Amino acid sequence: MAARLFVSVDLPDEFAEPIADLQEEFADASGLDFTDPEQAHVTLKFLGDVARSRIPRLEDELAAGVDDAGVSPFDVVYGGLGVFPSLEYIGVLWLGVEEGGAALTRLHGAIEDRTTAVGFDEESHDFTPHVTLARMDHAGGKELVQNLVDERDPTIGETTVEEVRLTESTLTADGPVYQTVSAFSLE
User: Fold this and answer.
1) pTM for this one?
2) Is 125 a catalytic residue?
């Protein structure tokens, strides 16, 4: 059986409440499907369904990728709002990264190099470090989202990133459940 995997930097538990408060500002926007604020993270690489027999090799490559990035523990300030792919066609509403984006991008690049070298698909778009707040299923509340993204510039908080995680996502009727498979410390 395969595991649905991604590589992430997880936000600390104390950020769940301010993220939930921020999501609440968008509660009247029809069509938004909110993520669980207690599972907030920055995805560095989505791997998809991976045969469990490939996980040990993947873990070796991720450890090497984290080393290749040469990133020591660093501070990240989470703040600002944005959407993918554009304000005209909103698919994802996200919380941005005000500081620490360069280090996250270096980690992403090194992990991307290592994982594509062993057969994982290359990302089809440029990396933008972000935390997904909601996905937009239909455009009913698009105008409200557009207005709030234009008007609001929230700062959620600052934290130190000390590790990268390989995470398994199990899809359930209540939404995805995440479990850490491995953690890779920054040096």
Assistant:
1) 0.96
2) no
